[in-house]
User: What shape does this take?
Amino acid sequence: MRKLFALILTVMLAFAALPLNVFASENEQKKTPSGIAYSEIGKSIDSYISEREKGLAACEVSVFDKNGTICNKYYGWSDIENRIKADDQTVFDWGSTSKILVWISVMQQYERGNIDLNEDIRTYLPEKFLKKLQYPEEKITMLDLMSHRAGFQDSFYENQEAGPYELFSSLEEAVKKCECYQAFHVGECTAYSNWSTALAAYIVERTSGKDYVSYVNDNIFIPLSMKHTSADPLQKDNDWVAEKRHELKCYSVTLNSSESYGEGRTYVQLFPAGAVIGTLEDISKLGQALVNEDSPLFKDKSTRSEMFKATSFFGDTEVAKNCHGLWTMQHKVETVGHGGNTYCTANLEFDPVSGLGIAVLTNEAGETAFCNGIPCLIYGSITDREGFKGYSGTVPDLSGMYYCKRTIVCGAGRAFQYLTGICPLSRNSNGTYSVKLLGYTFNDGIEIVPVGENQYIVKDNGSESFAYIKDGIYETGYADCFRSKTGALPTIACYAFILFGLICFIVVLIKLIAMLVRKHRSTMKAYSEEDRLIFAQQIIYGVSGIILFLFFFVINLCNPTFVMVSCLLAGALAVASVNISGLLAYRTSKSRAGIKTKIRNIIWIILTLAYPIFIWVMELSCFQTL
Assistant: This one.
């Protein structure tokens, strides 16, 4: 009997050990798409980071698959000045990676039958909730919001640098106050929209009967045991996160310098689009739940599978651009996920097929070497993918001034599109491209490598991104850019207007000071009527230059009241300028002044006419779309 018992025990132990041995063996044999053995992933990331330590503040990396965490790595400092290392207790802003929670929430509501992804979103909104639809007869679906193809321009009134006391009292109020004008036909182009995402989150509130923060905590954070993550813009849902966030410092780090932003707090008024803060372990838990077929996020496996299906494509290709709110990244394999950027930079992406995923968190603004470079290290390059190994067709010169559609293209701020989000591409003799304007190079050595007809990989600053470029349309994942038929003329005109206005403002100040000095000395100069008219026009240009400078470069003043007042003032000044032009022309024709004075007057007559033309073209022609 003892021998029989010993035999049975031996067999049981052998079978009990077998799965562990098999799993260990499988894990040793597994490789990433780039060819790195799973057992060597940590060392490979260590080596990658060590080569770039001079550009590092803090970087945390989690690599995982459907079986769990493969490795978690912590590098650098959460507070450089006080030499506090980043660790598993450090929290980071997710930025726009927060949007993943919105789209998970939408898919949960879809699974529960509360949202039809193909239904007009107005079905779920209060009557006449949307006030700025240019094409009200066109149906806008949840899929349009998820793919950022609903036609809305960027949120002009949202102030991402608001203080904690400038946040709205509710998501409904935020969506109403920050509503964007519908600038494009539905499906016309991809234009990344924080407002569209917040609107989708508000629809989740409407269909679930819960406020968005409570919904996310109850349906995502608690099921995944994400105890160290907050979705509230003031972290009211998690005191621990609120306290830990004060310990994090944010930076801009280059090879030669480091700039500190202190805590670098960003209070996002459209908070579902970018206000989540949490630890590396928690964002890794979210990623693991998404790659797992038995995901606790969804009751039905088909919901998860549906979420990873493409909802928009690049041009006329079969290359997916967006999958139910998740952006695709084209490596040796196609991954999905979302990046984010505030004073921190984050990225969560994964391969839905193999389940291999990566989360990267940094305390650097606009960071790309780690958030984009490490996924490339793990997933490889698209040039290694079958069918993308080379392209022998004719490659056109892609040079030109491209204007991004993720901006303000309608309304009183339409000139904004010519000053931000611009990409003046210029081809170099060695085949690379530079971003260059008026002889000044902003970015050099950009490689745009063809991998198919109209399909390219753009290599810039350690990152790789896929682009589809055809007939003057430059499609990136997040937004489409259109090549200007007039080149850089609109941009030059806007900057010239602002510069000339600032010069006039300085001239007016000098003239006023000179007048006060002469008055004090009783040597007041006699001014002709033409001189007074020119002085009045200089005041107009000076005031306008200051307003436009504030309008475009001092974001805190971009609110509805400032926009409305400045637009009305511009209209009044344009009318005054027309009158000045007429009077100056009449006075000059009657004047017996010398030829030099008349030439000066004629130049100013042209300048007085140029002012109302500029205001009309850039502002007043679309005043009704404010």
Observations:
- The radius of gyration is 29 Å.
- Residues 400-483 form one domain.
- Confidence is low (pLDDT under 50) at residues 1-25, 621-626.
- The chain has three domains: 92-380, 400-483, 489-625.
